[in-house]
Write a structure and sequence with these properties.
Elements lengths: L4 E5 L2 E5 L3 E2 L7 E6 L2 E6 L5 E7 L6 E2 L2 E6 L2 E5 L5 E7 L11
Antiparallel strand pairs: 1-2, 3-4, 4-5, 5-6, 7-8, 8-9, 9-10
Length: 100
């Protein structure tokens, strides 16, 4: 699904119809894909908050963490983009009742 994201950077309003929404908004953020790199956008501020650096296997936030793919391995980041579980797993799933 092609989406439109309005981003305010350096006082400019930028419209991009090239972003492909891969994850629905969860916990106020969604991951979007552009040119094969996933990034995360903020639903309220409508800005990119975590820069593109993750592979296609990355997914949305659940319990404050998002599963991300780096070099074909899965790990988890928090909402600031900080790695909290290093990418070393073959696959990862959303957190549900204290487990992943």
């Amino acid at each position: 699904m092609v989406g439109r994201v309005w981003s305010r950077r350096s006082g400019l309003l930028i419209r991009s119809s090239l972003l492909v929404t891969e994850c629905s908004f969860a916990e106020g953020m969604a991951c979007v894909d552009m040119a094969g790199n996933r990034r995360y956008i903020d639903q309220v501020r409508e800005t990119i908050v975590i820069q593109p650096q993750f592979g296609a296997g990355s997914h949305g936030f659940s319990k404050g963490l998002a599963g991300v793919q780096i070099d074909k391995k899965m790990g988890f980041i928090d909402k600031s983009g900080k790695t909290v579980v290093p990418p070393r797993y073959k696959e990862a799933h959303d957190f549900w009742e204290r487990s992943s």
